[in-house]
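Sanity check

After download, print the first record. It should look like this:
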Amino acid sequence: MIYAAANSFACSKLQSLAARIDPMTEIAELLKSAINDDAGISVKDGNIIKSGYNAEVDELRSLAENGGKWLRDFESAEKTRTGIKTLKVSYNRVFGYYIEVSKSYAGSVPLEYQRKQTLANSERYITPQLKEAEEKDKESHTKAETEYKSILGDDNDEDSEVKDTDEKDTEEE
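Expected structure tokens:
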């Protein structure tokens, strides 16, 4: 961009300088192939890497976008399979994903459900399939956070501005 602009001037000195500018075409092509045209202003906005550029990023994006759908589909399938109309799949920070069944349906709970918690009017269970989905969800968030940090660099956390300011103040004294 700068290269093309500098070459468009009639001034021979600018053209001379432009001739020495490396247009970095390989890097420009890499960026064009990797970065979305409509990427947000901040890395935190997401949607920076084009679909199809990196399989791992595509998988993380798919997990983030389709995780809720998978849980709804799982809940629907379990209601149909077990005949338990009050069955709900939910999440909390303490137990992670769980299946909640009212006590009136306790006798209909399949053997593969593992009891996790007893409440006043219901029981909470987990299954190996639900636990696996939770692990994938946690892994996708961890990997996404790692990718985000690798783009920004390790020293670009929220405290870095404070640290940088403190260091400058110390140097001036």
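If your output differs, re-run the checksum step. Summary of this record's structure: The chain has six helices and four strands.
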